[in-house]
Amino acid sequence: MCGIVGYVGTQQAGPVLLEGLEKLEYRGYDSAGIAVRNGSEDAEVVKTIGRLQNLVERTDGGKAVAGTCGIGHTRWATHGAPSKTNAHPHVSGNCTGSGSGRVESLVVGVHNGIIENYQELKAKLERHGYAFYSQTDTEVLIKLVDYYYRKYKVGPIDALAKTIVRVRGSYALAVMFKDIPDKIFVARKDSPMIIGKNDHETFLASDVPAILNHTRQVYYIGNLEMAELSAGKAVFYNLDGDVIEKEVTNIEWDAEAAEKGGYEHFMIKEIHEQPKVSEDTLHKYVFGEGKNVKIDLSEVGLTEEKMKAYSQIYIAACGSAWHVGMEAQYVIEELVGIPVRVELASEFRYRKSGILPNSLVIIISQSGETADSLAALRMAKEKGTETLAIVNVVGSSIAREADYCMYTLAGPEISVATTKAYTCQLICSFLLAVAFAKARGRIDEEQYRYYIGELLSLPGKIEATLSDKERIQWFAAKYANARDIFFIGRGIDYAICLEGSLKMKEISYIHSEAYAAGELKHGTISLIEDGTLVIGALTQSDLYEKTISNMMECKSRGAYLMGLTSYGKYDVEDNVNFAVYVPRVDEHFIGVPAIVPLQLLGYYLSVSNGLDVDKPRNLAKSVTVE
Ligand code: G6P
């Protein structure tokens, strides 16, 4: 999704803006641009398509653009194709060509989000003599600010307030006004934006890593709030134009944690961080030792009484987080005995069937900003249902709006394909399952301690799985030219397959599908031919034989079989061509080590094919549009 940055301070703005945009590259983009103001001169706008490096080269690393106040943007096209003209920043003035250069304009701005009623607003502005040069909703937004600023002759905050009352949709908006040098004005609704500050400089960005090299003092700007930023100062306003006080948050992450640290790609670095971040996440919620070990969710706010009272759980999420929900469903239903329904957030938000009384809706999201997941959360809250978020990004919209919030401690995840955040989400959902089971009397003290012990063993088991990575690397080299891959499994193994298959297709671009093993023969088996790779997940003892039978059906039609199972089940080699083993652990939780070989397989296939592992085509890390 688009990324926005802004800077006003004592340094030259260009290099700071480009550095910030670089840190936001993981969000996915197809063009980029900056606008920098030198005192009272018109903003100088530079836009390029393709990689950010093109913009870096065009501006000599930002040095070619003079001025200490500026805004920048990476665009992921929604309205209008990727082109220089549609790239941000956009201006309120008339603009010819692609929009680069010193553009005479009252307002220049960048925007992340979607303005839903932009066509109606565009028509209104056209009636007032505005002409449009791009196909974007953002140009309409910037011109609307210009319109209110001129028409009512109000200050910039009032003009922004009038604008945001009129638009429907989501926005993180940053604008500069020609007659107000050295200031940036921002407004936000439903799209991420943070403000950072030190004594002499002020920053804005879609995400914290963009500013961490400069400051750790961050403000979270709320929905329908605005701010006026000048060097070393940020003043916040509500929709009425009243000044509001904000608390500053000190970011404790290490800026290093958001760098590659010697690995070739963020994805492989993040895969290797899984033992550490799983341990951090477990120790955030597990306390004591021996007989006194316990899961403490008091920070989450979920009491035993609450856990006893629910009669139904819904889990809504997108992408990999939905796969976590699928796996959690099996584990929670089995350990807690409470019905669980897993829903794609994009579907759940529009369901007309209602939510059963006494339910808990769990929203799982790494970014805490995914538009559909946020809408699902709001829909549940509107219906009076209690909500619990499992979120990675502190202070994100979903974290702030949910009734209860359980943080994963995955740290910044940069690679578009999630790995460590997914694993931490699984761990949180397992912790919840065990805590619920205990609270509802489904397990006794001894079983409780056993499950916690098994959970605490997971970081070491991921580590052991990682030590076998060369075998996967070898296998990936052999299968680099695969055209289709099928993943099959039952129960928890099916959930593992869903994530394994997504890892494969999103970064290696090899077509792959995950099937509940028993379902393949109802149509899809017709696609199995000589040499097709079929990967069977075989971690669940009670379903092992059944899935093996389904794999044999594929083998007899020419498939090449890979089996993924646990140490000790060596007889799998009687049936499959290639076997991968992960350490044993209680089978409810084995999805944590078992996903690692599949993450590695996706990674190495992508590397073997020379692809852009961390920034796969067409994808975005944080999907803040519907
Ligand atoms: C995007 C990402 C996925 C992620 C999904 C949900 O599609 O590429 O990796 O699983 O969004 O994101 P969230 O931030 O809500 O977990």
Structure overview:
The chain has three domains: 3-251, Glutamine Phosphoribosylpyrophosphate, subunit 1, domain 1; 263-456, Glucose-6-phosphate isomerase like protein, domain 1 (Rossmann fold), CATH 3.40.50.10490; 464-611, Rossmann fold, CATH 3.40.50. It contains 19 helices and 28 strands. The chain starts with a strand and ends in an 18-residue tail after the last helix. The longest helix has 20 residues, at 420-439. It is 35% helix and 23% strand. The strands form five sheets. It has a nine-stranded antiparallel β-sheet, covered by helices on one side. The mean pLDDT is 92. Helix 15 runs parallel beside helix 19 and helix 16 packs across helix 19 (591-608). The chain has 626 residues and is an alpha/beta fold. 6-O-phosphono-alpha-D-glucopyranose (G6P) is lined by residues 318-321, 365-367, 370, 373, 416, 418, 619, 621-623.
Describe the secondary structure blueprint for this structure.
Layout: E1 3-8, H1 13-23, E2 31-37, E3 44-49, H2 52-58, E4 69-75, E5 90-91, E6 101-102, E7 107-115, H3 118-127, H4 137-152, H5 156-166, E8 169-177, E9 184-189, E10 194-197, E11 202-205, E12 217-220, E13 225-230, E14 233-237, E15 243-244, E16 249-250, H6 266-272, H7 274-285, E17 286-287, E18 294-295, H8 304-309, E19 312-317, H9 319-336, E20 340-344, H10 345-348, E21 359-365, H11 371-382, E22 386-391, H12 397-401, E23 404-407, H13 420-439, H14 445-456, H15 458-466, H16 469-478, E24 484-489, H17 492-508, E25 511-516, E26 533-537, H18 541-555, E27 560-566, E28 578-582, H19 591-608
Parallel strand pairs: 19-20, 19-21, 21-22, 22-23, 24-25, 24-26, 26-27, 27-28
Antiparallel strand pairs: 1-4, 1-11, 2-3, 2-4, 3-6, 5-7, 7-8, 8-9, 9-13, 10-11, 10-12, 12-16, 13-14, 14-15, 17-18
The structure holds 6-O-phosphono-alpha-D-glucopyranose (G6P).
